[in-house]
Amino acid sequence: xxxxxxxxxxxxxxxxxxxxxxxxxxxxxxxxxxxxxxxxxxxxxxxxxxxxxxxxxxxxxxxxxxxxxxxxxxxxxxxxxxxxxxxxxxxxxxxxxxxxxxxxxxxxxxxxxxxxxxxxxxxxxxxxxxxxxxxxxxxxxxxxxxxxxxxxxxxxxxxxxxxxxxxxxxxxxxxxxxxxxxxxxxxxxxxxxxxxxxxxxxxxxxxxxxxxxxxxxxxxxxxxxxxxxxxxxxxxxxxxxxxxxxxxxxxxxxxxxxxxxxxxxxxxxxxxxxxxxxxxxxxxxxxxxxxxxxxxxxxxxxxxxxxxxxxxxxxxxxxxxxxxxxxxxx
Length: 330
Ligand SMILES: [Zn+2]
Ligand SMILES: [Zn+2]
Description:
Elements: H1 14-40, H2 54-58, H3 65-81, H4 94-103, H5 105-111, H6 114-126, H7 141-165, H8 167-173, H9 192-208, H10 212-230, H11 241-244, H12 248-254, H13 272-276, H14 304-323
Helix pairs in contact: 1-3, 1-10, 6-9, 7-8, 7-9, 7-10
């Protein structure tokens, strides 16, 4: 007679957990290499004193659709097999469709001319000028690529840090923190004004003097790593590596609601900036809740259009609070 009892699932052993993390790490490295190889052939240079196509700079901050789809294909099995936060499939949720809208954002910003406007702005600031350190182009290609990755990460660390400190910048960065189900798609959730600010800051790396091809490869590495730290995978680094590279664990804390983690772990690729400049948060436990907890007048609405208008809403709420301060308790 057949037994009707269902065998209990045995919890994964420590060895199995370690193995799955190694596989996740290897897959993410493969993801990085494939993405770099796929993007290396993209034209990046155009005539000009710095040899840079500003339109491609304007797109900086978001990946191409092909990159997003490739990352999605590679990340999905790990998000399903070893998720940092186990939850129902996101597919039918508001969060998923909002992320899809953001994934296509680059396309319509291009169609309605916003990308061209950003490119014009960057050109007005940096165009027609010589590189600061032209001797950098004599370095070996690999050294130039490594320098570009470091420089992008350093510039982004400080921009991101100021975005958490200065109210006017926070109002454009807050939409990235509206995600309550953080995963690789969250990477693209950026306000167009943040893309413009990012392009302006990132262009400084190009002005530095590294060869445009090395800049393009360095930026692709930075960008793919940014997708990697958003993947909902239970992966953290131990030992000296936790001082060198940011892990998905550290960035998940950046998106956590916990008061202790607010404004912490602002680095993207290299963990040493957070360690050196006092913004590291690396507890033993994992975060549970993600998103924003802000007072009602500053709450971010739940739609793409409301996200776009959020800087205005935030400014209005701040002005109103100044004009109408709460009466002091007597
Ligand atoms: Zn942030
Ligand atoms: Zn993020």
